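[job 4471] stage=fold_predict status=RUNNING
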Amino acid sequence: MDSFELNKIIAAVLMVALLIIGIGKISNIIFYVEKPKTPGYAIEVEKVASISGTEVEVADEKVDIAALMAMGDVTSGEKIFKKCAACHSIVKDGKNKIGPALYNVVGRQVGGVSDYKYSKALAGYEKSWTFEELNGFLLKPAKWIKGTKMAYAGLRKEEDRASIIKYLNQNSDSPQPLP
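[job 4471] inference complete, writing structure tokens
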């Protein structure tokens, strides 16, 4: 191979490199994108009130619990509870799993199972599991009682929440009267 052939190969490689760099520069000029002054997005935070050391969501509107409970039925609540059964038992004298046993939960003091280690937020929450409390908690547990260990997104559908609450109420020694 003589030096002339070698010069042609080197010149071709250099031309390709210059062509690639040139096209990149020209495309940056043609397709100019202005960068924002501050990167990221603004996040809005809701205000919460503090009650006895635990944070609770401030309710914007009162839920008509009687109308809500009329939406649900026990049989669909049993089907929906299968999601909960991975962490909770519902049978009488059932053992605690990842979460506490939920037999007799309606009307019971929050954090009332003696042989279960609750988070500080639930242990210090001085209310009972009423229909209203269960509805709020099942909607978004981490938002209803800040600091809870329950890592569940919640049930968005009102009918599903009402069905679960009816199912929980039925699984009790003395079910509470529906509102």
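[job 4471] summary: Helices lie at 3-30, 65-71, 74-80, 120-123, 131-139, 141-144, 158-170.
[job 4471] exit 0
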